[in-house]
């Protein structure tokens, strides 16, 4: 999927720029406030229980979409990652419309200018590239190795921030990136199911997430152009679907006809596709709810732990072989991400 990418609205102002999640960003809520979603449920539950349920839902949706994507693309034999990503985008567009216009989780914001539209379209194109590459990589790589590569997002974020905005970090921050890179090199050299093409497109997906976070920090900086994450998803999702449509038709052929034919013989695929697309949206919804009920920093910590949890769960379910050296490399990478996050926090405190 969706990569529920974690993004920033202003350069260096959001600690979630360094997380490794494939989810859509959560910019600052625009003036006017956000409607108190979940009050009906919250009136029956204590705040701690409600927060725990939201965090559990976040974990289930994030890990669930990874496992469903892996099962569909690798084990079930549905080898159409572009079409699958397009279904994710259509699902996100439909559910976002319902959440904003009917459930009123957040106030509806409108695109105010052609310039703002083009900026969102550009972000949608980068988003498409990242998510398609991520889904495609699951055809060739185990989820555990996919997550290890995805954990290197801070490394690419720092590179793009320097190349595009000339933003320099402190020496401590750059030093913290060394174990991030070293760990993935260690894991790659000892991965039993290593696949070069899968590895390269997974790197592309990770770099794409980092690029989108940096580009968004440049493009959507003015107060007038800032969009809440739910509104941004509402506009980005249909744009992304339109971008993906010609690619799936050209590369993957008449997937819709194949899917209908497949459903006639096995109706389970309908359940799989609908469930997969729904969970892809829930990744973004729970990402918003976790930030609303806790903080961006909590989301960052959860994101660091999620990669490890997803890797363990995938190994238990799919039984892919792992090595001690591979697990050590993954652990070193996660440790590097944690050190990087701490170094970033200290550097921001120093600069302020």
Automatic annotation (TrEMBL):
Pfam families: TPT (PF03151). The keyword Membrane applies. Keywords: Membrane, Transmembrane, Transmembrane helix. One of its GO terms (cellular component) is membrane. InterPro entries: EmrE-like, Sugar_P_trans_dom, TPT_transporter. The chain crosses the membrane at residues 49-68, 80-105, 117-138, 144-164, 171-187, 193-211, 232-251, 267-290, 297-318, 324-341. Residues 52-341 form the Sugar phosphate transporter domain. Its main location: membrane. It is found in: Membrane. The keyword Aminoacyl-tRNA synthetase does not apply. It is a multi-pass membrane protein. It comes from the Eukaryota. This is Sugar phosphate transporter domain-containing protein.
